[in-house]
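Listing S7. Sequence submitted for prediction.
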Amino acid sequence: MPSRILPPAGPARGLAVAQLVNALGDGAFLVTSALYFSRVVGLPATRIGLGLTLAWAVGALAGVPLGRLADRRGPRTVAVLLAAATSASVTAFLFVRGFLPFLVAACCYATAQTGLSAARQALLAALVERRDRTHVLAHLQSTLNAGLAVGAAIGGVALHYGTRTAYLAAFALDAVAFLLCALVLLRLPAVAPTATPPGGRPGFAVLRDRPYALVTLLNTLLLLRMPLISLAIPLWTVTRTDAPGWLVSALLVLNTGAVMLFQVRTASAVRDLSTARRTVSRGGILMLASCAVFALSAAGWPAWGAVVVLLAAGALQVAGEMMQSAGAWQIGFDLAPAEQQGQYQGFFGMGVPLARMLGPLLLTALVVDWGVPGWLLLGALFLAAGLALGPAVRWAEQVNSRLVHAG
């Protein structure tokens, strides 16, 4: 089991340990935060939703400049500072007592998290050989899921007691976890800042890279799978099928457990942009099949039949998710200039906060409200985005090749 989760000894393992530590805290934070802001801070649900939406919008905009800062000042230094900033923003949540302080703290949290992700990706690009990056990222994803699962269990204990002290303890755990993450990152080898070579791409080059922007947009559509598993599928299960309520938890366990066990094996098929394109396309086919089976679960099955259909749909969904993730990692790295990985990873990573911000509203309307036609349309969207990513990547390769020859 450890060999499936942790990469071999060296910088990659250090990155995985840092991921594991902060995932433990994040797991506790994610399962307790909504109730903490509601019951302890006293914010209405609409204010919480508005604040988090605005915060992730700010975080999405911050990814590119913070990624460029990682290029110019060194990704390890910036990653350590942003991990500490994330810890400080979580600590600030312990003292907020109104909407405006909550909004400020949430914006700081989302900004630090988005920037930290870009800096860590740039750090990985500097410390890990190109041919090994997707394989290492698969290990990091497995580590992330393992940490989130354990952290969520700890958060569940806080939910069980339901006291202000229990919630504060969960938040304090997250703050301490990010401080430990900063210390682990500080022990990794230092990486010198990168400089744009003569005739290279100046400034915020990623903002003028149209092929990379298209690739990022298509990947953002694929990332709608994130709110799909966390929000739309649970709501669909309890409102549109006769499956028992415990199946919501079972589907989440199926998803996280499969990623922990099989993400590394899935990523082993991705070695270059060609295999990445094929893997993403196959993932789109599986996502279409998954959406069709989810739609089938509302066909009036008895409880046991609905359970079988939903588990089959969940298995197809996580298989498609792992394929899409593995291919997207390779694409995001290989299309980025070596000296500007920070800003490019910051731009590519914008898909995560955008999916978190827009996905819940879109998927609730499409799947939960519209039903079977919405599922089929969503599946077609996943398939179309997965297939379109191939031509978009080839376009980006052609543009990059012309820039190299022109330089």
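Caption to Listing S7: primary sequence and predicted structure tokens for the chain studied. The chain has 15 helices and no strands. Residues 372-406 form the longest helix (35 residues).
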